[in-house]
Amino acid sequence: MEQHTQDHNTHHQAEHHRLPPYSALPELEKFLDDNLGHKVPKIPEHWRKTIAKISPWITLVALIFGLPVIFAAIGLTALFSPIAAMSGVYSWGIWSGSSLVALVASLILEVLALPYLFKLKKEGWTYLFYATLLTLVSHMLYFDFGGILGSIISLYIIFQIKNQYK
């Protein structure tokens, strides 16, 4: 048991070595892993395996449906930003632009995750985690409580299946 703990700690430290030393992401991941992965009711193991196996397909479907949303958002932002500015609502363009950037970045991270998710590699899980965090922050900026709840549920599932990725 002690050797397993040492191996886990060594792996955990090596895993985050690529991040800058000032990054808060390792601490956030550990906090979420402790709370969403261990202190809450667990999803049964056979379901975790199934979710991990179908997660790349779910991600692929989300990407396919997400691309038209991005194009629509770009078009609506381009259409309404000048109208909002002429109406004196200058912050609308900034908020919609930042949300659009977060959405595009999240989808890029999901694209990067796909090949690793199919192979059940830890890199895929990490990209998916980062994409979910970006989505959560975007929902928080808009006080989108439904989106925040959805992101928290996603984080719960992601941390429940974390042990399936090597």
Overview of this protein structure:
It is a single chain. With 166 residues, this protein is mainly α. The chain has one domain (46-164). 81% of the residues lie in helices and 0% in strands. Helix 2 crosses helix 6, helix 4 (91-118) runs antiparallel to helix 5 (122-141) and helix 5 (122-141) runs antiparallel to helix 6. The chain is elongated.
| Terminal residue distance | 19 Å
In helices, the fraction of residues equals: over 70%
The pLDDT mean sits at 81
SS field, number of helical segments: 6
Total discrete domains: 1
Structural class comes to mainly alpha
The major β-sheet equals: none
The string of secondary-structure elements, in order, is HHHHHH
C-alpha geometry: elongated
What would you report as the Rg, rounded to the nearest angstrom?
18 Å
How many distinct beta strands? 0
Uncertain parts = 4-17
Beta-strand share of residues: under 5%
Considering the chains and any ligands shown, give keywords for the structure.
single chain, 166 residues, mainly alpha, 6 helices, elongated
Compact description:
This protein has 166 residues and is mostly helical.
Topology summary:
Blueprint (H helix, E strand, L loop, with lengths): L1 H14 L9 H14 L6 H42 L4 H28 L3 H20 L3 H16 L6
Helix pairs in contact: 2-6, 3-4, 4-5, 5-6
